[in-house]
Design brief:
The chain has about 375 residues and is of the alpha+beta class. It has helices spanning about 75-85, 90-105, 105-115, 125-135, 145-155, 160-170, 175-190, 220-225, 230-240, 260-270, 290-295, 300-305, and strands spanning about 15, 25-30, 35, 40-45, 140-145, 195, 200, 210, 215, 285, 310-320, 330, 340-345, 360-370, 370-380. It folds into 2 domains: about 15-235, no CATH class; about 285-380, Nucleic acid-binding proteins (OB fold (Dihydrolipoamide Acetyltransferase, E2P), Beta Barrel), CATH 2.40.50.140.
Length: about 375
Amino acid sequence: MNNSPKLPPVFQAHQENLRKKRVGTYIKVISGLVVVFSGIIFFAISNEDSSTSQKREDSTIKAGVPVNPYIKDIEVYKKNTADHTAHLSNKFKAARENTLKMLSKNSVYNELVNKKSIDQRYLFALQTFGDYMISFNTIDETSSIPVSTVNTLKKVPGALEFTLGIGSLETTGGVTQEILNVYERYLNRYSISGKMGDVVNASDSGFEEHINQDFTLSTSLLIFQPENKSLLDAYYKAIGNGIIGWDGETRSEYKYGFLLNRVVFNNYLLKVYPESIYCVRYQKMATAKKLYAEYDANEVSADDLYKNKLILVEGSVKTIAKDFTDKPYIVFSTGYFGEVICYFDSEDQLRTLSKGDHLLVTGICTGRLLNSVRLKSCKIF
């Protein structure tokens, strides 16, 4: 690797043990700068101010046409972008202009913006922008991209640079109208999410197209409209369908950290979308180990805290079984002789579980019986 001191210290790779899709080594990229290590190529990219002479394409939203619910709040984002870019420092203005110059020479940008191409091979890049921004750290102004994702992006020439470029625009004022129009075109063509094998019909030609890779645009569009209720629903459904997954950890300095963790996401819904069907108003939260330890130490006190309340329990699955009445249940390990047993009303959520799975479960605590603390009417959170 080139150790030239002219390159900023922004290439940091580290192993993360994250769940589902976001697994592997991460590359951190500083706000306003992109370093791509393939050659080595270094791009200093940042942003244009609102008076840029670049001609902007008219919005594809037509008067009198119902607005797609997934972009109904986009006008607020446009206004905020105009305000932010109008007040950029000279340093960030210059950086933004450099970003736009780089993008103007980028092959993917040319296809998507200038030629208005609609092709599945660009869906992953449009999705990855959102994944990249989720981990944007407001303190050190860096974001992370898994190396596995970098390798996938490199399969389409220019896709990595395009994704990092629009990420740089976002961190220095906001993405341009042209990029927003690209998302709208792809949303209209492919919808908000899709699973491999799904069939998409082109309304104008009747041509059927099969989706060749799972995708969701909900993550990226939430960066522009974080309180859009349709998008919040779509994001949760994408996770439920296995298209993306929770990382398990988040940090307060992550601007969009509510998209990384189920508990934090639920707290966010309570604040901005309390009527959501995916919002759970649990009363207490504890690990299985802590819950059992509290009952073991003082059952009277523990009952005061938990009994007959909807609680959220976190733990590792020890057993998946049915009782003598065919009632399905799981047992959480506690590290003690005793157990936490969670009874479910349906087997549906348990069919794909395995011993050792780490879960969050909500249920009504019924107290302690012999050497177990029990919950009823449980659901996987």
